[in-house]
Amino acid sequence: MPPPLAKPLAPDSAAPETATPGSATPGSATPGSKDSDGGVLAAAYGATSADSGLVPLTLARRAPREDDVEIAIEFCGLCHSDVHAVWGEWGGQAYPLVPGHEIVGTVSRVGSAVTDFAPGDRVGVGCMVDSCRECESCLDGLEQYCENGMTGTYGAVDRRNGGSITQGGYSSSIVVDRRYVLRVPDSLDPAAVAPLLCAGITTFSPLRHFDVEEGDVVGVVGLGGLGHMAVKLAKAMGAKVVVFTTSESKVPAALELGADEVVLSRDEAAMEAANRTIDLIIDTVAAPHDLNPLFRTLRVDGALFQLGLPSEAMPPVNPRALVRRRIAYAGSLIGGIAETQEMLDFCAEHGVVADIEVVRAEQLNEAYDRMVAGDVKYRFVLDTGTLQAPAKEADA
């Protein structure tokens, strides 16, 4: 779950590119009807206010510019951060808002300068659709840490395109600059790939940053959408995986996913037995919890990566727990474009995808309620083929 850190590009950076609207190579199945400039009216589901719920909407998607890729969306994952945004829990949200940043589809049109994608290619779009492309982070392939603010896939000001608000993947189509489009391997189920573009890369990035390899011991705290991906990816990297959970009912599920051991973190004896046994912990829990018992399970030079973002303050960290074993306490935010492509290729090589439940458009509000209640194993994915036809006029 990426945090609400995406902000508009600095006013003086990233001026809109000049390109002739409609200068695209036609594809075989452009979704929706075209406007006079070659743009498309796309069917969508989104919110018109914090309490409207998700309702049918129509989006005006721009015509592909020279570096753009137009995508006919097939599937879009549902992320818990979508709920926070739609329900206005992160404040300052512009409506109408179409969420969705786990997008998989096929290319329908490309701009005149695009040579790396062609109509019919299966592609994906994750949590960002732009960044400044000039700062040190962007030049290092770490666009998610753009020093001028990455542009989120939805709910962000799109400085290169007239200051419009980006609208996400609960829709029939989207247009994205080729630099932020990913190639989806043909061997993977496209519906089950969608959550990889958020939950997958969010857990892959710290595992790769820590250079996890065969023989390492990785602890995973929490077994939701992020946690189940952390288990699968760490196992695919050759690690021994230990799941920490407060719920005894999660034990069979963790073992079924491939965990080697499960530790009930409320069991003091079990936590004591885990002392100094873990190299790296991936903490996916988004509720306040005490980290100090987890630090005691780490070996010298171990690390705990915090991925979950509790809405309330966490219990304080005891610095002595870090100092005594040279432990690192770190955070991580999704991944850059190159690393996300690496993750997709790694998943194709090892047959890793998310465990999903596919939902229809009219089930989205129910799915949100079930997400909040934790009633999903482990990610919902919207089948965009169930969206209504677009209206004759756009809502956004």
UniProtKB/TrEMBL annotation:
SUPFAM superfamilies assigned: GroES-like, NAD(P)-binding Rossmann-fold domains
Residues of the Enoyl reductase (ER) domain: 47-382
Substrates-to-products reaction catalysed: a primary alcohol + NADP(+) = an aldehyde + NADPH + H(+)
Gene3D superfamilies for this protein: Medium-chain alcohol dehydrogenases, catalytic domain, NAD(P)-binding Rossmann-like Domain
InterPro entries referenced in this protein's UniProt entry, alphabetically: ADH-like_C (IPR013149), ADH-like_N (IPR013154), ADH_Zn_CS (IPR002328), CAD-like (IPR047109), ER (IPR020843), GroES-like_sf (IPR011032), NAD(P)-bd_dom_sf (IPR036291)
Listed Polar residues bias regions: 20-33
Required co-factors: Zn(2+)
Region (Disordered): 1-40
Enzyme class: oxidoreductase
Pfam families: ADH_N (PF08240), ADH_zinc_N (PF00107)
Protein name per Swiss-Prot or TrEMBL: alcohol dehydrogenase (NADP(+))
Native organism: Pseudarthrobacter siccitolerans
